[in-house]
Amino acid sequence: MIYLIDGNAYINVAVNVVKRMLFNDKSIRDEYYMKDIFNEGRYILKETSRIKFRDFSLNYLTSLISPVNNEVNEVHIVFDSKSWRKQYVLNHFKIADSDDSSFEYKSSRKRDDTIHLFFDYFQTEIQPHLEKKSGINFHRVNGMEGDDLIAHLNETIQKDKAIYTVDKDMIQLVNNDSNYTILVMPKMMTKHKKIMYTERKKSSVETDFFSLDETDIANNMENVISKFEKRGYKKIDVNPTEELLVKIFGGDKSDGIPRLYKMTPSKVNKMTEYLTEKYSDRIINLIDNAYEEESFVDDCVSKMIEINKVKDDQIVSSLKESLFLNIRVIRLSTKMIPDHIKGEEYQKIYENRRYNQFDYNKLIEIKNNSVLI
Question: For residue 48, how many C-alpha atoms fall within 13 Å in the half-sphere facing its CB?
Fold first, then answer.
């Protein structure tokens, strides 16, 4: 099994916990950082901050993997870079001369101007030890979000996968086809840690009793989910197709993505019911190929016109472009990544199928000897 970890989510969880610990530590005073006397205008983490973050981040990483350490063959941790989506959205509204030109991708998210100090410390001091000694694979590509890299690895590695994330956008990646993909999520101010999965649909095709591959796969992942449950995770059955459609038509407030024209929740429900009945399990594939085969998009637009009783030609003409925008920004698929972003760094990941093998015992050694970092 492959473990894919959203590095930004992992570090942010660690940082938030450590900052609360530091707040209660009277010796650290008001701030977790101080001026770097060797670099004017720059800051560094205070020693106490560095030690607490180092120890907690290693303990937390170990706790994420420990429930299934015997099943995990590879661990991949991905990090965000500057997002192509932000520029794509800005270009869209500039060309469209839209009234929504004030829209900014993920503009509602709070910023901490010094949180990068934790990321810098992790990537320069901790990451090299993890990569060299425990075999964890790290990925960061200029212009891409970590979500893009997880989508790429999810598509190209043909093995069962667990994805650690705090981002519900990734529910769309959950699947139970030839390989399973499940989500592992922390509490995030809820009662339980969560395992998100989707039940395997019973095939209408006659069972081949001489091939037990599918049964073996199902049993393996059921065993993995069971191990997470024993560590306090709550199992939640999700519908990845429905989650994706709701975000495309209804928008996503957490990322500041607007809903499509007058698509209220009740209208979004009508839309998802219509598409599910008509296209069934082909929907995600049709969305991924929307730019090549536009008939699906045209059908969606026609249905929105019908639901909203749109008669204004100007609105009708803008619906298709708005739908394309939401698909491009929301869908996590390699087909949505612009070609100019798939440069040399990306190609190295795309072409490299021989990743480091993970050694859980070495991770434990690093955690137990973190003072050496």
Answer: 16
Q: How many residues appear in the chain?
A: 373
Mean pLDDT for 216-245 is: 89
Gap between the Cα atoms of 62 and 76, Å rounded:
14
* Predicted local distance difference test score (pLDDT) of residue 207: 44
pTM score, two decimals? Answer: 0.88
Domain tally for the chain?
1
- Domain assignment present for residue 246? The answer is no
Q: Would 142 be classed as within a structural domain? A: yes
In which residue are the tokens 């209408």 written?
204
Single-letter amino acid, residue 333:
S
